[in-house]
Design goal:
With about 250 residues, the chain is α+β, with helices and mostly antiparallel strands. It folds into 2 domains: about 140 residues, Jelly Rolls, CATH 2.60.120.10; about 90 residues, Orthogonal Bundle (Arc Repressor Mutant, subunit A). It is about 50% helix and about 20% strand. It is built from 12 helices and 9 strands. The chain has a 5-stranded antiparallel beta sheet, with helices on one face. A hairpin with a 2-residue loop joins strand 4 and strand 5. Helix 5 packs across helix 6 and helix 9 crosses helix 11. It is elongated. It starts with a helix and ends with a helix.
């Protein structure tokens, strides 16, 4: 499975950590957007409906809605630019009717987690996997299989060096191994093992490009038993060796 395939089934969204000034900013866009303040508050006018977004209340901007934003105080805000496919027609209609959304405790903790992650480093791919669960939480619905699977993916991508077995993955998602296979085939078009192999290989390639770590340590960090196992996997999935890949990246 190629890395292009791997990215094809991820939620398509952009996350930004921003702060707004007192000057009013007015615009519109063709995608749905969530406004989730982490600190401070901002005032919004969304298609003529005025309200406040703060740590206890988020806001939803439907596609093409003219909206104005201003901030009376210092603030830090997560902006989620969502793909329309991520928001069902039913949820889109419900949020558009009441665009100012009280945040439950669970939703608030997810927002805080995302803000902390974004402030500490470049946004990692695992953070994208939490978005379906966030949308379910904002909608006050039980987590869908789609959301539960992406939470599992986030956990694995955050720690690919752990000895993940199919049984471990199924236990982490609280489902049976056979159901796990069904979910991965439906969502990823691949088996759990094939997906895990690609995740580990992608992380190994990142470390080979961006660090001077010994190959044995890279192998350990990415879940390979030793340097030889990393070499064999790279030959299979990338048709090269770790040393050759590193040389090519440096060149």
């Amino acid at each position: 499975m190629s890395s292009d395939h791997l990215h094809a089934f991820r939620p398509q969204a952009e996350l930004h950590l921003r702060s707004y000034r007192a000057e009013t900013l007015t615009h519109s866009h063709d995608f749905p957007q969530m406004v989730l303040p982490v600190a401070g508050r901002i005032e919004l006018d969304i298609a003529g409906r005025q309200g406040m977004a703060d740590a206890a209340n988020g806001a939803f901007v439907e596609p093409h809605a003219r909206h104005a934003t201003s901030a009376p105080c210092d603030n830090s805000v997560i902006i989620l630019d969502l793909a329309p496919s991520m928001v069902s027609a039913e949820l889109m209609e419900r949020l558009a009717r009441r665009p100012f959304i009280p945040l439950s405790r669970a939703a608030g903790k997810l927002v805080d987690f995302m803000a902390l992650t974004m402030a500490q480093q470049t946004i990692p791919a695992p953070l994208q996997h939490w978005l379906p669960l966030l949308l379910d939480t904002l909608a006050n619905t039980a987590p869908r299989p789609h959301s539960r699977l992406h939470v599992l993916m986030a956990k694995i991508e955050a720690e690919p060096g752990l000895a993940w077995s199919v049984a471990d993955m199924a236990a982490a998602a609280a489902i049976s191994p056979s159901r796990l296979h069904e979910w991965f085939q439906q969502e990823a078009g691949a088996s759990p093992r094939a997906w895990l192999a690609e995740v580990r290989m992608r992380r190994a390639c990142e470390l080979l490009r961006a660090s001077a770590l010994p190959l044995a340590e890279i192998a350990q960090r990415c879940g390979y038993s030793d340097q030889s196992a990393l070499t064999n996997a790279m030959r299979k999935l990338r048709d090269t060796t770790p040393a050759a890949y590193r040389r090519a990246a440096a060149a």
